[in-house]
Write a structure and sequence with these properties.
alpha/beta; Alkaline Phosphatase, subunit A; 10-stranded mixed sheet; 5-stranded mixed sheet; binds zinc ion; 16 helices
Length: 586
């Protein structure tokens, strides 16, 4: 038991170390590191001590001796008043607690890592990780209401993601904040390490260059290096967006799209399907945006990849038995969501009329990946659930949740064939969204007259879903009232955005003229029609969209290794469970 006197001492010591700026050690305290996985050890010593004054130990022994690699010491790294101690590409060969101490000039800092192994043998031949970006409980509930129907309080069916053997609550906070973004959240799933907002596959150290921060190996790199698995990455966003990039990228800045394409090329995943074609092509060629003049579609083709850019060619090429490496880019930016592609024909559907549904891409990926004798690791992301939630466009977000669930069904059907595939379905973070009743157009003109709660809400009257689970119309008389708890100034009509994705705000200065990023955002006048409610935002005045929430999210899993998931787990645990299922520490 900690005595009060000792506790006071600890608090004083912590406060003091904050003032004195102690050494910072990466990986950080309480890091969990897979035995045999590569990571960069970095210590930052404040005040730029010279190399002779430093000492870094692992369990009391010189770190470079334990890791079998020479350390590099950089005095005044990046010209700053710090000395950096580096051992890149290190790995630890035995499990158990590891204490790392860094000393200079009489000051010592220490961290403890938990190095973990995996049981002998491999539980699963394949792993499919399906990430619903921003998928919150309310999206899931609404998708079930619309695609399965509900009466007298009972649903008429289950979502594919509901009927799985195991379930766990996942906490998503990062090293820098209670609220994560998709970059550091996929980093946790893909590497087992926590990171900070905007970072992929690295710790957020003091380095100036985005690619110089301390790295750790991703599950895709490990699966290829250790087991020879085929790797697939499938998304409906730009392939360079945070979640899909989590398997390949090591950068402090998720926005560095050109670099991230290069990282895809370096890892060479066997299947890459998504949007973002413009960052593969040089500026001036087919709407290309690359400033380095490189044509990465050509480079992938030279590397033995088949390239496709429509849903039709995707299906044809994936079906050919000789196709073992496949690059598919179906839009310059994000692939349009299910509501636009299937029903409203808005977004960029006129420009890209033959984009695949996520289920088409998952089927094609499974067809190609299953040709590898060693098994495969597949990441699938439904990314626009998040994007449409940022724009407060819940109908589009829920239609994409239905699409995501259909993709889960495809994965489960594949897994059911031989029961050797671990299927994990997990959001990366939540949005603050809830279903609070219905809007009934018969009850009045104003938004708050139409809003019905408790008994008067009853049930919505969407038409019966089509074969794929989508009601053919969203503009019905009695709709779900799905509301966001955090928003900028905007006008809310309580009606679906049939003309295209919601744009809640425009940027304006005091004179009402559009200005730059930091300008105050004001409600888009388009939606401020009679009957709409003008809502004063509760986010900062420059906010253009909704934000993520720190709420826990719900994971479900099926297949060999799924038993690892129960109770509440940290997001880094998803990596640990995949490593266990694949026996990756061997
Ligand atoms: Zn987001």
């Amino acid at each position: 038991m900690t005595s009060p006197v000792r506790l006071v001492f600890v608090i004083v010591a912590l406060a003091w170390s904050g003032v004195a700026a102690a050494q910072t050690i990466y990986p950080i305290d309480r890091a969990q590191i897979l035995r045999g996985a590569k990571f960069d050890l970095k210590v930052e010593f404040p005040g730029a001590p010279t190399s002779g004054d430093l000492r870094v130990t692992i369990n009391g022994e010189d770190a470079s001796k334990v890791l079998g690699k020479k350390a590099t010491v950089v005095e005044r790294e990046d010209g700053a008043a710090r000395t950096a101690y580096w051992i890149r590409d290190a790995e630890l060969s035995s499990s158990g607690p590891v204490v790392v101490e860094a000393s200079a000039g009489g000051s010592t800092a220490s961290v403890t890592w938990d190095v973990f192994g995996t049981p002998d043998g491999r539980l699963a031949r394949n792993v499919i990780l399906l990430v619903g970006d921003g998928l919150s409980i309310a999206h899931r509930t609404a998708a079930r209401m619309l695609s399965k129907g509900i009466s007298q309080g009972k649903y008429h069916g289950e979502l594919a993601m509901d009927s799985m053997s195991n379930m766990a609550l996942v906490s998503t906070s990062g090293t820098d904040s209670i609220v994560t973004d998709s970059a550091n959240s996929i980093t946790a799933y893909a590497t087992g390490h926590k990171s900070c907002v905007n970072a992929l596959g690295v710790y957020c150290a003091s380095n100036l260059a985005n690619r110089q921060h301390p790295q750790f190996e991703t599950i895709a790199e490990l699966a290829k290096r250790k087991l020879g698995l085929a790797v697939g990455i499938v998304t409906d966003t730009e392939i360079q967006d945070a979640t899909p990039s989590g398997f390949v990228a090591h950068t402090r800045a998720r926005a560095d799209y050109e670099d991230i394409v290069e990282m895809y090329f370096n890892l060479q995943p066997d299947v890459v399907l998504g949007g973002g074609a413009q960052f593969f092509r040089p500026a001036g060629v087919d709407r290309g945006k690359r400033r380095d003049g490189q044509d990465y579609i050509q480079k992938f083709q030279n590397g033995g990849y088949a390239f496709v850019d429509t849903a039709t060619t995707l299906g044809d090429v994936a079906a050919r038995p000789e196709t073992r490496r496949l690059l598919g880019l179906f839009n310059d930016r994000n692939i349009d969501g299910a509501l636009d592609r299937r029903f409203l024909k808005k977004g960029t559907v006129a420009k890209f009329p033959d984009q695949p549904d996520l289920t088409d891409s998952v089927r094609a990926a499974l067809q190609v990946l299953s040709r590898n004798d060693q098994g495969f690791l597949l990441l699938v992301e439904a990314g626009r659930i998040d994007k449409y939630s940022h724009s407060l466009d819940w109908e589009r977000a829920v239609y994409d949740t239905i699409m995501f669930d259909n993709a889960v069904a495809v994965a489960k059907e594949y897994a059911a064939r031989s029961n050797d595939t671990l299927v994990i379905v997990v959001p990366d973070h939540a949005h603050p969204v809830s279903i609070i009743g219905t809007y009934d157009d018969r009850k009045g003109d104003e938004l708050r007259e139409r809003l019905q709660t408790y008994a008067s809400a009853g049930f919505p009257n969407y038409p019966a879903p089509d074969e794929a689970g989508y009601p053919p119309r969203v503009d019905v008389e009695r709709r779900l009232a799905m509301v966001f708890a955090a928003y900028p100034d905007h006008c809310d009509a309580g009606r679906p955005h049939l003309g295209g994705e919601n744009v809640p705000v425009v940027a304006a200065d005091a004179a009402g003229e559009k200005t730059g990023e930091k300008a105050t955002a004001v409600a888009s006048p388009t939606y401020c029609a009679p009957g709409a409610a003008r809502k004063i935002g509760n986010l900062p005045i420059t906010a253009r969209s909704g934000v993520h929430a720190a709420d826990d999210v719900l994971l479900t899993a099926d297949g060999p290794g799924a038993d690892a998931f129960r109770g509440r787990v940290d997001n880094t645990y998803v990596f640990r469970a995949i490593a266990r299922a694949l026996g990756l520490a061997k």
